[in-house]
Amino acid sequence: MTKQSDINEMVSDFSRVYILTILHEGPVHGYEIINNFRKVIGKDISPSLVYPFLKKLEQKKLVTHTLKPVGAKKRKIFELTQEGREFSEQLFKRFSELISVALEPSLEVCAHCGCKVYEGGYMERIKDRDLMFCCIHCAGAYKQSLKK
Ligand SMILES: [Zn+2]
């Protein structure tokens, strides 16, 4: 039996990824994240998930904030750093690969470029994992990116 708490945990992971997609579109207020989430996903996201997550991203230098006056108040506007952009793009790529594999279980996806490998492909063992690539060049580029 799957526990409700497990489901909640996974949904919050998904919510965090979704927050990153909002940040990726451009600078936002915390409450805009909450509004956008409600509009697109149709569910409320708890501020107690959003703000600590933003804080954690700031500590990891993936996000910065600036204070902008709104009326009499100053509000924080959050923005991805260059590192944060790269981080989230990699994460989205990884997610879309996982999702396309889940939807089409017989399908392999190139571990580097994310394109679908319908037949053949190029398999290589990297760091004790058998990885599928569309071609030997992607395998090379993938190994190169690990060295960075
Ligand atoms: Zn490829």
Plain-language structure description:
This protein has 148 residues and is α+β, with helices and mostly antiparallel strands. The N and C termini lie far apart (42 Å). The protein contains 5 helices and 7 strands. It has 2 domains: 82 residues, Orthogonal Bundle (Arc Repressor Mutant, subunit A); 44 residues, no CATH class. The strands form 3 sheets. Strands 1-3-2 form a 3-stranded antiparallel sheet. A two-stranded antiparallel sheet has the order 4-5. The site of zinc ion has 8 residues, from loops. Zinc ion binds next to loops.
CATH topology-level name of the largest domain: Arc Repressor Mutant, subunit A
Total helical elements:
5
Strand content: 15-25%
Order of helices and strands: HEHHEEHEEEEH
Task: Give Rg in angstroms.
Answer: 19 Å
Helix content: 40-55%
Strand order in the largest sheet: 1-3-2
Quaternary state of this entry equals single chain
Q: What is the assigned CATH homologous superfamily of the largest domain?
A: Winged helix-like DNA-binding domain superfamily/Winged helix DNA-binding domain
Mean pLDDT: 88
| Beta-strand segment tally | 7
What spatial form do the alpha-carbon principal axes imply? elongated
Q: Segments where pLDDT lies below 50 for 5+ residues?
A: none
Structural class: alpha+beta
CATH class of the largest domain: Mainly Alpha
* Total separate domains: 2
What ligands are attached or bound here? zinc ion
User: Largest sheet at a glance?
Assistant: 3 strands, antiparallel
Distance between the amino and carboxyl termini: 42 Å
CATH architecture of the largest domain: Orthogonal Bundle
